[in-house]
């Protein structure tokens, strides 16, 4: 009896593979557990002298790939699973812009060289948001003071009062203490992130900080920042609140000692002193600091100073 006339059991998948590839099942040597022809047997028969691992054969069958078209990396061209093309579309290489590459290098340096700790405090900003709205109502629209401007001002006050947050590590094993309160503001661009610096922010009013932050943000997005606009920062504020982010862990802008992450306000019901229930807005402030320079208690004092200023906006306005 010719081999093709033999009635050899075969799995449905093996039959389908044989039909698609024009393989005579009668000529296929079965390796199934019960003596049946399985799909990988069909692939082996189709390959003839072209060897492949069982996993590569299963992948080829699942993806409807002709293994004879694959150049294997093994001995005598044996095909391994790593030689198989991706099941999805091949990724295309995308070149990293010089700015994004610089940001990536600085973030990696910061994350690997600094022992960071992040502490979160929550500020009740109900009165602050109301205060800001009322104040901006009396100003021309182009002179409005943003939430971030006020936080930059609060951070500047806390920086002036807490010297250690203006320290940076010295290669000799000590610290470099900076007197100027130069506060960086993270600005997101299409191809990366940049941190222009508001110089001597502690000596500026909220109106002056707002004007300078608008100038710097516009110059950053228009690629018009000068080298001086980027130099001398001792602390950075990164605000993701406008994106609805309610918690994150900012990475320190090396070689600074700390960075403040500002989150979106979240509304909650709270009981007032008279027993009534009212809606309050709470904002998380995430402070990441270099534990070689700052300890947890110092960080708590610093963060709570900013929290206190936001919770008592009348104090902030007078500073």
Task: Give an account of the 3D structure.
The chain is of the alpha+beta class. It has nine helices and eleven strands. It has helices at 12-21, 39-47, 54-63, 98-113, 126-137, 147-161, 206-221, 296-311, 313-318, and strands spanning 116-124, 167-169, 175-177, 183-185, 187-189, 192-194, 197-198, 235-239, 258-262, 266-271, 277-290. Strands 1, 4, 7, 8, 9, 10 and 11 form a seven-stranded mixed sheet that branches. Helix 1 (12-21) packs parallel to helix 2 (39-47) and helix 6 packs across helix 7. The protein is elongated and about 95 Å long. The model is unreliable at 1-5 (pLDDT under 50).
Question: Could you name the key traits of this structure?
Answer:
319 residues, alpha+beta, 7-stranded mixed beta sheet, two-stranded antiparallel ribbon, 9 helices, 34% helix, 18% strand, elongated, disordered N terminus
Write the SSE topology.
Elements: H1 12-21, H2 39-47, H3 54-63, H4 98-113, E1 116-124, H5 126-137, H6 147-161, E2 167-169, E3 175-177, E4 183-185, E5 187-189, E6 192-194, E7 197-198, H7 206-221, E8 235-239, E9 258-262, E10 266-271, E11 277-290, H8 296-311, H9 313-318
Helix pairs in contact: 1-2, 2-3, 6-7, 6-8
Number of helices, counting only DSSP H or I runs of 4 residues or more: 9
Radius of gyration, CA atoms, in whole angstroms: 32 Å
Category by helix and strand content: alpha+beta
Give the CA-based shape.
elongated
Q: Could you spell the SSE succession in H and E letters?
A: HHHHEHHEEEEEEHEEEEHH
On the 0 to 100 scale, the average pLDDT is: 88
Measured between the Cα atoms of the first and last residue, the distance is: 103 Å
Largest sheet: 7 strands, mixed
Low-confidence stretches: 1-5
Strand content: 15-25%
């Amino acid at each position: 009896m010719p081999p093709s006339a033999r009635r050899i059991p075969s799995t449905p998948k093996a039959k389908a593979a044989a039909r698609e590839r024009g393989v005579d099942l009668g000529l296929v040597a079965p390796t199934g557990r019960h003596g049946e022809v399985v799909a990988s047997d069909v692939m082996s028969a189709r390959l003839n002298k072209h060897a492949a691992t069982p996993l590569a054969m299963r992948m080829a069958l699942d993806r409807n790939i002709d293994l004879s078209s694959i150049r294997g990396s093994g001995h005598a061209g044996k095909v391994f699973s790593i030689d198989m093309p991706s099941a999805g579309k091949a990724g295309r290489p995308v070149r990293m812009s010089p700015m994004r590459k610089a940001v990536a290098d600085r973030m990696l340096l910061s994350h690997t060289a600094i022992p960071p700790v992040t502490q979160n405090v929550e500020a009740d900003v109900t009165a602050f948001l109301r205060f800001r709205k009322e104040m901006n109502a009396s100003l021309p629209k182009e002179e409005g003071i943003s939430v971030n401007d006020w936080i930059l001002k609060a951070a500047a006050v806390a920086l002036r009062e807490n010297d250690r947050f203006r320290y940076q590590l010295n290669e000799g094993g000590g610290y470099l203490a900076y007197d100027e309160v130069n506060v960086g503001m993270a600005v997101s661009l299409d191809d990366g992130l940049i941190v222009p610096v508001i110089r001597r922010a502690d000596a500026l009013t909220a109106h002056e900080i707002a004007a300078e932050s608008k100038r710097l943000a516009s110059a950053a997005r228009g690629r018009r920042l000068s080298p001086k606009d980027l130099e001398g920062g001792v602390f950075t504020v990164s605000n993701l609140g406008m994106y609805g982010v309610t918690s994150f862990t900012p990475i320190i802008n090396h070689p600074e000692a700390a960075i403040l992450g500002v989150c979106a306000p979240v509304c909650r019901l709270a009981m007032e002193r008279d027993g009534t229930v009212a809606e309050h807005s709470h904002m998380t402030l995430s402070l990441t600091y270099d534990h070689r320079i700052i300890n947890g208690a110092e960080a708590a004092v610093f963060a709570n100073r900013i929290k206190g200023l936001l919770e008592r906006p009348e104090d902030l306005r007078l500073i």
